[in-house]
Amino acid sequence: MGRPKTSAPKRELPYLKVYVSREERHAIKKNAAQANVSVSAFLREAALGHTFRSTFDHDAVLALSKINGDMGRLGGLLKMWLAGTPDKGMPVTDIRRLVADINELRHKMLDAVQRLG
Predict the structure, then answer these.
(1) Do 80 and 59 meet the contact criterion of CB atoms below 8 Å apart?
(2) Is there a contact between 116 and 59 (Cβ–Cβ < 8 Å)?
(3) pLDDT tens across 26-73, in order?
(4) What is the spatial distance between Cα 38 and Cα 36, in angstroms, rounded to a whole number?
(5) CA–CA separation, 23 and 27 (whole Å)
(6) DSSP character for 7?
(7) 8 Å CB contact between 67 and 105
(8) Single pTM value for the model
């Protein structure tokens, strides 16, 4: 995909003018962004009957990786507390807060996964 291979500069190539509503323009720009191509490339390829491969929402993937790291850290702390002597060391209130943090991160992870869907 991409711009056709020609020796002519882009400004010398013929172009098409297309009239669209505001809603159509918004939808086209959104679809082009999801396909990770310019609007021009998206319209050209779509008009020529080419299909686009689905791309991931990179922001959601980045958020998931951060959440995964946080979950691992919090899980490690909880495991360390459970493996030791729970009545000594960390106060129970801190453990309850840790479990609440893990639950909050679980909800964030579910939200990020749903954005990918």
Answers:
(1) no
(2) no
(3) 999 998 888 888 898 889 888 888 877 666 667 777 878 888 888 888
(4) 7
(5) 6
(6) S
(7) yes
(8) 0.44
